[in-house]
Amino acid sequence: MGRPAEVFVRDLSGAEGTRLVRITRTAKDPIKMRRAIVVLMSAQGQPAPDIAHLLDAGEDYVRGVIHAFDERGFDALDPKWSGGAPNKIDEQTRAWICAIARCDPPFPR
Predict the structure, then answer these.
(1) Known Pfam families for this protein (predicted)?
(2) pTM score, whole prediction
(3) Within a domain: 89
(4) What is the DSSP letter of 57?
């Protein structure tokens, strides 16, 4: 099985490069900063395996970020947080549990 073909980000304009550099320096979200670094390194000609090694990430992650940036642009840098696991109890049961929890326990006689 051969090595996968190298993946590089599309050619960036000067404004895009400047924006990416600014994101890597000022982003408060580490995920967004890491993704911007991946795109910048790819734009500078670093192959995906080297980027993955330097960032201690998987090659699939690096390739995924590059492909996502090519498709969606800067929107691909933002993390997409999901809502978490679905509730296991319904609202009526939750309200009943909360009502019981707010009650004072009876004192022993």
Answers:
(1) HTH_29
(2) 0.70
(3) no
(4) -
pLDDT in tens, 39-89: 999 999 999 999 999 999 999 999 999 999 999 999 999 888 777 888 888
Count how many domains the chain has.
Answer: 1
Decide if 97 is inside a domain: no
CA atoms within 13 A on the CB side of 51: 27
* Distances in whole angstroms, Cα of residue 96 to Cα of each of 45, 86, 99, 106: 60, 19, 5, 18
- Domain region containing 45: 14-77
Yes or no: say if 14 and 20 are a contact pair by the CB < 8 Å rule. Answer: no
Q: Is residue 90 part of a domain?
A: no
Instruction: Give domain status of residue 29, yes or no.
Output: yes
